[in-house]
Design brief:
By secondary structure, this protein is mostly helical. It has 5 helices and no strands. Helices cover 74% and strands 0% of the residues.
Length: 131
């Protein structure tokens, strides 16, 4: 079963999935960049818009460009997971009443679910050889 799963991962997303993900992320990126000037502190919205546009370009390209942008996205997600963890470190709340609220537990879960795979992909450039 492991080999069949590995084969599917190595093939990547289907063309329909790439088109759908690319269209939605591209739309999000454009909207974020268009609404950012109306806000008092737009830098975060601009950065999120650029992140979405990177995902869009990654979806519509192939080869080395896609691999490079995938590594960049992995590095960004890893950086965000570290930023979230250190932001919660001084907060003092390990678990809050609501699961949706920021807490140390949520930052740790985010790191293991997204940050760790992100940095592994950024270093290796693929998921297939990660052991």
């Amino acid at each position: 079963m492991y080999r069949s799963g590995q084969h599917v991962l190595n093939k990547g997303l289907s063309p329909i999935s790439r088109i759908l993900l690319g269209a939605i992320s591209g739309l999000f990126g454009v909207v974020m960049i268009l609404i950012a000037p109306d806000l008092s502190n737009p830098i975060g919205i601009y950065l999120f818009g650029v992140f979405c546009l990177i995902i869009f370009v990654m979806c519509v390209t192939s080869g080395k460009v896609r691999n490079y942008l995938g590594r960049l996205v992995g590095l960004i997600v890893f950086g965000l997971s570290i930023w979230y963890f250190f932001g919660q470190l001084g907060n003092g709340d390990f678990i809050l009443g609501k699961r949706s609220e920021p807490s140390m537990l949520n930052s740790i879960l985010f790191f293991f679910a997204f940050g760790l795979p992100g940095i592994l992909f950024a270093v290796k450039g693929q998921f297939s050889n990660i052991k």
